[in-house]
Write a structure and sequence with these properties.
Layout (H helix, E strand, L loop, with lengths): L2 H7 L2 H20 L6 H12 L3 E2 H8 L3 H13 L3 E5 L7 E5 L1 H22 L4 H21 L1 E4 L2 E7 L2
Antiparallel strand pairs: 1-3, 2-3, 4-5
Helix pairs in contact: 2-6, 3-5, 3-6, 4-5
Length: 162
């Protein structure tokens, strides 16, 4: 492909999608050794950091829809990594707690995650890595809190504010 054609498709959306594909592949590969997916790891860490968190809050913190979180939570309960209970304030809600098995999975996965992160960011110098992560944070913050409104815990279904 010539440079002019490449420049036409090399948009931020294209580049971000390709980087996301790479990230998912790297993290799926590293986590297969501990029998976790990246989403399961994320949810375990959220529950570990906030014991008794409601499933809807997990979805919000992970940037996932509630039905995906419900499915993942069911699998984590089935594998004994978390337990669910009826919420104290709202009997219709479900809250989650990590088990010792879930804590062990996080502990086992942490060095693998760290290695994967270092591998992904290794083409960048240390200061460039920090700048890169800061720029990602700024883009995400700007586009999720200032201009867009989330609808019912479905992060991909947002509408522009007027």
């Amino acid at each position: 492909m010539d440079k002019k054609s490449w420049d036409r498709i090399r948009t931020p959306g294209y580049q971000i999608r390709r980087l996301h594909q790479l990230s998912v592949a790297v993290f799926l590969d590293c986590l297969q050794h501990v029998n976790l997916t990246p989403i399961q790891y994320t949810i375990l860490v959220i529950i570990d950091m906030e014991p008794g968190v409601e499933q809807t809050s997990i979805a919000s913190r992970a940037g996932l829809d509630a039905s995906t979180v419900a499915d993942v939570v069911k699998r984590l309960v089935k594998h004994g990594m978390i337990k669910r209970e009826v919420g104290i304030r709202d009997k219709r809600s479900r809250v989650a707690f990590i088990t010792s098995s879930g804590k062990a999975a996080i502990t086992d996965a942490a060095p693998l995650i760290e290695d994967a992160i270092q591998n992904m960011l290794s083409p960048l110098a240390s200061d460039e890595q920090q700048n890169f992560l800061s720029m990602i944070d700024r883009i995400l913050t700007h586009n999720t809190s200032e201009k867009l409104v989330s609808t019912d815990g479905r992060p991909w279904q947002r509408e522009l504010r007027s």
